[in-house]
Backbone:
């Protein structure tokens, strides 16, 4: 049975500082590293054998992937890194303090920017500190200057279809170590969630979400391995 393990990266420095992060390449905190190792230990305790891993090109997800595989005793697993699994691009909010932004624009507006399906934050100013166009990891890519969850899903989808689906279809157990919103995009797709339902889906840091799939890649079960930090798992619609 194809199995997908979704793993959000451990706590990052800007998770801790409560700043809009998106594509900024902040590292894990010591707590985030410990969370990543714990995620791997849980994978090991459950006897889950990963065949292929996929992660973004952002340090916090790559290191979470590596730390988790190490702790699971599966350092040798092949890992593919691709920017299509990056966090949602936070546009002009990138780097701002979330609480200060809520005080300035109101809690409701910030919730719309953070959790609505198709309302993107204001675009990033070109040429500023957080313009990633000159970053060689994105060479040749058509880069967004902001993303909603919908446009995040639009760019995750070709990678999902082109790289992850074939691995799952061949029966592999696949680890995807990614980000809160790239994982929410995958959950919306897999569980056929409505735009309203996805609003309330929060993915805890480094808590492996194990999803067993049928041959058509429809979820048949889903559970977080750390039950003490588990959020409600999505329920398949239709
Ligand atoms: O800042 C970010 O990039 C994301 C993930 O940490 O935050 P949120 O989606 O919770 O606003």
Residues:
């Amino acid at each position: 049975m194809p199995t997908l393990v979704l793993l959000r990266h451990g706590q990052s420095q800007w998770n801790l500082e409560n700043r809009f992060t998106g594509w900024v390449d902040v590292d894990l905190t010591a707590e985030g590293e410990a969370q990543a190792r714990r995620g791997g230990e849980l994978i090991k305790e459950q006897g889950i054998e990963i065949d292929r891993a996929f992660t973004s090109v952002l340090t916090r997800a790559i290191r979470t992937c590596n730390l988790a595989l190490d702790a699971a005793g599966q350092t040798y697993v092949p890992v593919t890194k691709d920017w299509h699994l990056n966090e949602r691009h936070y546009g002009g909010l990138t780097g701002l303090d979330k609480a200060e932004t809520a005080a300035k624009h109101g809690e409701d507006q910030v919730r719309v920017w953070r959790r609505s399906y198709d309302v993107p934050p204001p675009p990033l100013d070109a040429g500023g500190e957080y313009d990633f166009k000159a970053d060689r990891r994105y060479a040749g890519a058509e880069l967004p200057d902001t993303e909603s969850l919908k446009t995040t899903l639009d760019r995750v989808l070709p990678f999902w279809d082109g790289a992850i689906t074939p691995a799952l279809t061949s029966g592999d157990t696949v680890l995807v170590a990614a980000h809160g919103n790239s994982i929410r995009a995958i959950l919306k797709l897999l569980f056929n969630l409505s735009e309203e339902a996805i609003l309330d889906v929060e993915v805890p840091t480094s808590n492996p979400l194990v999803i067993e799939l049928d041959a058509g890649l429809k979820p048949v079960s889903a559970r977080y391995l750390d039950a003490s930090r588990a959020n409600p798992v999505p329920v398949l619609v239709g």
Remarks:
- The two ends are 21 Å apart (CA to CA).
- The mean pLDDT is 96.
- The chain has one domain: 3-229.
